[in-house]
Specification:
Elements: E1 5-11, E2 16-19, E3 25-36, E4 42-52, H1 53-62, E5 68-81, E6 87-100
Parallel strand pairs: 4-6
Antiparallel strand pairs: 1-3, 1-5, 2-3, 3-4, 5-6
Length: 128
C-alpha cells in the first residue's frame, strides 16, 4: 500500500501554529488548488494541510497568504465527534515537505526550503 499526495496551490490564509500537549509544534493551513471543470472552466478545491515538527516550524515562519507552494505528504481521513455529538470526518494532507513554487522570501536559508521530518511519516501523531 502507498499513500502519497502532491499538491501545488496557494495559501488561503496565513498558517496557524500551536503546540500539542507535549509541546511539539503543529501548523495548519489550507491550499487553494485549481482543477479543470466542465466546459474548460476552472474549479478550485480548498484542501486542509497539517504539518508537524520542523515542517510545522517552517510553515509558520515562512509561509503567508497567497504564497504558491508544493506540498508533498500523505492523505489522512480523521474521525471525530463534534460539539453536538455528531460523528464527523475530515480529509487532510499531513505534509512531509513544503517547497516554494514562486520566489523564495528574503532571509530563508536554502536548506529550509525542503525541510525533512524528524521522524518517519508513518509515525506522525494522529491527534491535532
Amino acid at each position: 500500500m502507498y499513500n502519497l499526495t502532491v499538491l501545488v496551490g496557494r495559501l488561503v490564509a496565513d498558517p496557524e501554529k500551536r503546540s500539542l500537549p507535549d509541546g511539539r509544534p503543529v501548523t495548519n493551513f489550507r491550499l487553494a488548488v485549481d482543477r479543470p471543470g466542465r466546459a474548460g472552466e476552472r474549479q478550485t478545491d480548498f484542501i486542509r494541510i497539517v504539518a508537524f515538527y520542523r515542517t510545522a516550524e517552517f510553515a509558520a515562519n515562512y509561509l503567508t497568504k497567497g504564497r504558491l507552494v508544493l506540498v508533498e505528504g500523505r492523505l489522512r481521513i480523521r474521525q471525530f465527534t463534534d460539539r453536538n455529538g455528531q460523528s464527523r470526518s475530515v480529509a487532510e494532507v499531513v505534509a512531509r515537505t513544503i517547497q516554494f513554487m514562486d520566489r523564495k522570501p528574503e532571509g530563508v536559508p536554502p536548506a529550509a526550503v525542503v525541510p525533512e521530518p524528524e521522524i518517519p511519516i508513518d509515525e506522525f501523531p494522529e491527534e491535532l
